[in-house]
Specification:
The complex is a heterodimer. Chain A is mainly alpha-helical. Chain A has eight helices and two strands; from the N terminus they run αααααααββα. Chain B contains eight helices and no strands. The chains are: A mainly alpha, B mainly alpha.
Chain lengths: 232, 224
């Protein structure tokens, strides 16, 4: 019954799950070793195929939160608040992945777990803090309408801060240690590596959409249950 | 009454209430002083490295003590039950925001007025750099209080109240703190103006962007 009703969601869910497994195989086995990396660094470099898609998905999720926040303040409607909250939650998970995989890669490659002179690291860390605050704020406000308004305001201010943090960190840091994969002239990696990256990006994005749909639906079900309870 | 007079009335009300007790200012000032003293021992400042650390210490003192003031700004209104009265006044919500923000900036600036000379004496710095550092402090204060006033109005309506404000404000204020510290350090070191131009841009840009956003969204935060 549930399977037939939500057939497409099940299909997408299974597809993204299988896709992650395939991406894992492609990243660890199929992708050629990157030039200029030796020993542990060569192995650690393969984190790249999960690290970059996680960063992209996290950023996409926060962008969705930003758009939903604007829509909430502009038009109102609980669905926008639910979308904003769900997306922020998922974004926080992916950003956590980014700040965990980053140092694992950095230690064998740069010799340090962390450096404050790299703007991407700083931005990821600040991003994580802003949206952790967002989740906390939601938990700390009792009234539904007020929580939605506060969260929307923070969803807008927080996202507006991201490019400014990045700019500030770029000026602040003396050396930019992060590898530059995409430059003005196109992609700067071997074709096979690019295929794996693109595949991984697609799978992560798909997974985000599936989780977001499920998360949004759960919130709506919670609302329904609450409504049924009050009718008793 | 035109808009600016309403703004001035709100700011004046806050500053006058503060002047009668001077509670918040005293707390902020002593806290800022304590930060400088604690850092002095925690980092074992000696003559040769004091200069390097002073800009950072100053901005920790300004922002952390500012946090105290920002928190009190709405908590006092809430506890006295005067927030409803303020909201019932025939003024725009944006006038309330501007008034509160000006009062908060003024309070932070006043703390800085006392802390700057004291720290210049304590760390044995040359007073020649002081005028430009005052400008940086003014801009930094306005930016911090600008978005801080908005968040303070939110924090007071949460269960955790004053605990919430630093968690929300500090991550957002990171670019401001970077720019302010860089400028303070650059001015103390006597760097040429051209090298500091981008930090001025960042500081003024931050002020402008977040003031505009806070001004636009304040209505939603204070709505009852």
């Amino acid at each position: 019954m549930a399977l037939r009703k939500d057939g497409w969601l099940w299909a997408l869910g299974l597809l993204s799950f299988a896709g992650i497994l395939v991406a894992g195989y492609l990243a660890l086995v199929w992708a050629p070793p990157a030039e200029g990396f030796v020993g542990q660094a060569e192995l650690a470099q393969r984190i790249f195929y999960f690290h970059v898609p996680a960063a992209w998905t996290g950023f996409l999720a926060f962008f969705v939160t930003f758009v939903a926040s604007v829509a909430y303040l502009w038009k109102g409607g609980r669905k926008w608040d639910i979308l904003a909250a769900s997306s922020a939650e998922i974004g926080l998970v992916f950003t956590t992945m980014v700040v965990v995989t980053g140092p694992i890669w950095a230690k064998p490659t740069w010799g340090v777990w962390w450096t404050w002179s790299d703007p991407k690291l700083v931005t990821a860390a600040i991003l994580w803090l802003i949206y952790f605050g967002y989740m906390m704020l939601r938990r700390m406000v009792e009234d539904d309408a007020r929580r939605a308004r506060f969260a929307a305001v923070l969803g807008i201010i927080g996202f507006a801060d991201v490019p400014i943090v990045f700019g500030a960190a770029r000026w602040w840091g003396q050396s930019v240690a992060h590898p530059i994969v995409v430059s003005g002239g196109g992609f700067d990696v071997a074709p096979r590596m690019l295929t794996v990256l693109m595949f991984s990006l697609a799978v992560f994005t798909l997974m985000y959409i599936v989780i977001l749909t499920l998360r949004v639906r759960t919130e709506h079900l919670v609302d329904e249950v609450e409504a049924l309870k009050t009718r008793e | 009454m035109n808009f600016l007079r309403k703004v001035a009335a709100v700011a004046w009300k806050d500053l006058r209430a503060e002047w009668r007790t001077r509670e918040v200012f005293s707390a902020m000032f002593v806290f800022a002083l304590l930060i400088i003293i604690i850092f002095n021992f925690a980092l074992e400042l000696r003559a040769e490295n004091a200069r390097v650390l002073v800009p950072g210490i100053l901005w920790v003192a300004f922002t952390f003590s500012g946090m105290l003031g920002l928190n009190r700004s709405f908590i006092q209104e809430k506890d006295r039950g005067s927030l409803e009265g303020l909201l019932l006044c025939p003024v725009d919500r944006s006038a309330i925001y501007l008034g509160k923000m000006l009062a908060n900036s003024a309070l932070m600036a006043l703390v800085a007025v006392f802390i700057l000379p004291v720290s210049f004496v304590l760390f044995n710095l040359s007073f020649g750099a002081l005028p430009m550092i005052v400008v940086v402090t003014a801009l930094g204060t306005v930016g911090f209080a600008g978005v801080g006033t908005l968040f303070s109005a939110m924090a007071v309506n949460t269960r955790a109240r004053e605990v919430m404000l630093p968690l929300l404000l500090f991550p957002v204020a990171v670019p401001l703190i970077i720019a302010a510290v860089k400028l303070t350090a650059g001015i103390m070191d006597g760097l040429p103006a051209a090298e500091l131009a981008r930090w001025w841009q960042l500081l003024i840009g931050f002020d402008a962007i977040f003031f505009t956003l806070s001004f636009m969204t304040f209505d939603y935060v204070i709505e009852e």
